[in-house]
Specification:
α13 crosses α14. The protein has 21 helices and two strands. Among the domains are: 55 residues; 252 residues, ADP-ribosylglycohydrolase fold. The chain is globular, with a radius of gyration of 21 Å. It has a two-stranded antiparallel sheet with strand order 1-2. By secondary structure, the protein is mostly helical.
Length: 446
């Protein structure tokens, strides 16, 4: 086990990560702190993990916890109103919009990739200012030196091919791999695919070391023989992280103007790995894309997608906050500050990977969409400059704005460096055209 893997998946650290999650879910703070001290003081080899997991599973919410966050799909539906009627999709522009979504997703991912893992907006701003590139107006430049006041991700030097002047195609990345995965699942199992079908695809196409956090835990649970609909809930402290939110755009691409149907498909995919707000992030992303085909403003798209999320959830509350702040007339940096203050507690700089929690990153997606209405490039840049999971937020914003605007309207300065080419480690898709992928997805629309 590497040092990074030990930090994430060691017995002690999984339990400590579960305590973080339970704090977010409203379990009593004093009880959690006592357990944290107790676990932290023990050598990992002496921890009775089974006993601790059983104790943690039985902790009730603290008094006054008011959020309602169901996992079962029927229970989620019971919290929602009937879906609103949306305008019809223009058949003449449908493919251009779908192509724009796939292309925009690739652009947004490539913009955010060099900054992945660099943490906060303040740290990213320092880097960009050293590079004379703040605010971002193009791809990220690679500095020839490392300023002392900038924290660099351990993986920073791996992403030279995503930096300005070095881009020749879309490099391999999970934000694109999962687009291909969903496409292949739909192609082989159809729109009625099950969560078990998603699991089978993963075991057949992904190596254990190629999936991370919640997906890594779930892969282990699948190999150990657990049912696909149960693996996400077993010893998986990452079940409200961002993994589902980055997987589900394709369900929006194939359901133009039908956010509820898109969200239902996304739910079946997300259920494999996530619960509560982790589920909702996947459903929301798919619904955003579906609504983007037929609605003219990002605010309207966000509201249509939010109608698919339980109104009593923390996710719904957070995105509603961002909408409210935007509509009060704030500039993006002021709203970013509010997001950091109100929903940034999910990020813990001293614990490495909490920058991939679903809710704060979804807030940055909403922020980028709202400020990208008139300018695609500004929208993806705002999301990326917001920090946290930069390639994921950039990809989702690029996808939604790409559908809204269409491929023909995306600026060549962003799209031309990609040379209509992407790379993947999924067998059968190792090198393919971006338009080719969009055409394949378009062929699945019914």
């Amino acid at each position: 086990m590497t040092e990074l893997e030990h930090r994430l998946y060691g017995v002690k650290n999984l339990l400590l990560a579960e305590l973080n999650l339970l704090a977010e879910q409203g379990r009593p703070a004093e009880t959690l702190e006592a357990l944290r001290r107790e676990i932290s003081e023990q050598p990992a080899s002496e921890i009775d993990a089974d006993a601790y997991w059983q104790r943690l599973a039985q902790l009730p919410p603290a008094a006054g916890w008011a959020y309602v966050e169901p996992d079962e799909y029927d229970a989620i539906l019971a919290t929602l109103t009937a879906p609103a009627a949306l305008p019809a999709v223009d058949s003449n522009s449908r493919f251009d919009k779908l192509h724009g979504g796939v292309l925009g997703r690739c652009v947004g991912m490539m913009l955010g990739k060099p900054l992945e893992g660099m943490g906060t907006a303040a740290n990213i701003r320092r880097y960009l200012e050293h590079a004379a590139a703040y605010p971002l107006q193009g791809y990220v430049p690679k500095l020839a030196y490392r300023p002392d006041d900038v924290f660099f991700s351990p993986i920073f030097d791996h992403w030279d091919r995503a930096t300005r002047g070095n881009i020749t195609q879309v490099i391999q990345d999970d934000d694109i791999e999962y687009v291909i995965a969903a496409y292949d699942i739909l192609k082989n199992y159809g729109p009625e695919f099950t969560t078990a079908d998603v699991a089978q695809f993963w075991l057949s196409h992904f190596a254990y070391g190629q999936v991370h956090t919640a997906e890594h835990i779930v892969y282990r649970n699948l190999v150990n023989g657990m049912p696909a609909t149960e693996v996400a809930g077993y010893r998986n402290p990452f079940r409200e992280w961002i993994g589902a939110q980055i997987r589900t755009d394709v369900y929006g691409y194939i359901n133009p103007g039908q956010p509820r149907r898109a969200a239902a498909m996304a739910y079946r995919d997300a259920l494999l790995t996530h619960r509560r707000n982790g589920l909702y992030g996947g459903m929301w992303a798919a619904a955003l894309v579906a609504a983007a085909y037929v609605l003219e403003s990002p605010a309207a798209v966000i509201r249509a997608a939010l109608a698919e999320i339980p109104p009593g959830s923390r996710f719904h509350e957070a995105i509603s906050d961002v909408l409210s702040w935007y509509e009060s007339g704030e500039d993006w940096e002021t709203t970013l500050g509010r997001i950091q203050q109100t929903h940034g507690a999910y990020y813990r700089a001293d614990e490495g990977f909490n920058w991939v929690q679903t809710i704060p990153n979804a807030c940055l997606v909403a922020l980028g969409l709202l400020h990208g209405e008139a300018d695609f490039g500004h929208g993806i840049a705002v999301a990326v400059m917001g920090g946290w999971d930069t390639d994921c937020t950039g990809a989702t914003v690029g996808s939604v704005l790409g559908v809204m605007k269409g491929a023909k309207a995306l600026p060549a300065g962003w799209t031309a460096p990609l040379n209509d080419t992407l790379e993947s480690y999924i067998p059968g898709y190792n090198r393919m055209g971006i338009r080719e992928l969009a055409e394949g997805i378009d062929g699945l629309i019914r």
